[in-house]
């Protein structure tokens, strides 16, 4: 790598409710050539691998406009301004599904798409989940809750029933957490 890229111009952010769009002109440090780029300013997100007291995953089905189809996912959503990620995970789980966890532990933090987004995704494992109500979805959400045995995770991913990369990442982090501490050579 030949050095940092230089930002030549930056548009005022266009507010699109769940993100702000910025258009940039950047200079390639190798050639000096200017390139257009788009970035999205997004709030941080949470993803929750939720496991019930009888060893089932709390999954959700909802329509996704980018893929223009209904997907099978884990609960999650955006952090409210100033909100702690762990609190947001428990809140999103209960709002979307009506399930309340006994314990919530962090699995890790990833960058959903650093090519164009500036946010981070906080992954959590919620255990001992019990349903306390039917859920209180946001006005624009249309979610169906589905309980699936934990033993079906690999099958759901391998058959393409679950294709969402951020959900698969959460499952991977969960598997690493179950494996125990990482010992470097």
Describe this structure in words.
This protein is an alpha+beta fold and 185 residues long. It folds into 2 domains: 6-41, no CATH class; 45-179, Nucleoside Triphosphate Pyrophosphohydrolase, CATH 3.90.79. Helix content is 18%, strand content 41%. The protein has 3 helices and 12 strands; from the N terminus they run ββββββββαββββαα. Strands 5, 8, 9, 10 and 11 form a 5-stranded mixed beta sheet that branches. Strands 1, 2, 3 and 4 form a 4-stranded antiparallel beta sheet that branches. A 3-stranded antiparallel beta sheet has the order 7-6-12, with no helix packed on it. The protein is globular. The relative contact order is 0.18.
């Amino acid at each position: 790598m030949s050095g940092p890229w230089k930002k030549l111009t930056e548009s005022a952010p266009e507010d699109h409710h769940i993100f702000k769009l910025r258009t940039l002109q950047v200079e390639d440090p190798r050639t000096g050539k200017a390139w257009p780029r788009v970035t999205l300013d997004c709030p941080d997100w949470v993803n929750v691998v939720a496991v019930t007291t009888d060893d089932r995953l709390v999954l959700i089905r909802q329509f996704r406009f980018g893929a223009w189809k209904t997907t099978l996912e884990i609960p999650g959503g955006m952090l409210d301004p100033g909100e702690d990620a762990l609190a947001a995970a428990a809140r999103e789980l209960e709002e979307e599904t009506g399930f309340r966890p006994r314990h919530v532990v962090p699995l890790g933090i990833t960058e959903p798409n650093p090519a164009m987004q500036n946010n981070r995704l906080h992954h959590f494992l919620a255990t001992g989940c019990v349903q306390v109500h039917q859920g209180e979805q946001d006005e624009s959400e249309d979610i169906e809750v589905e309980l699936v045995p934990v033993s079906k995770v690999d099958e759901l991913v391998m058959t393409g029933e679950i294709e969402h990369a951020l959900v698969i990442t959460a499952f991977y982090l969960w598997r690493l957490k179950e494996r125990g501490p990482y010992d470097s050579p």
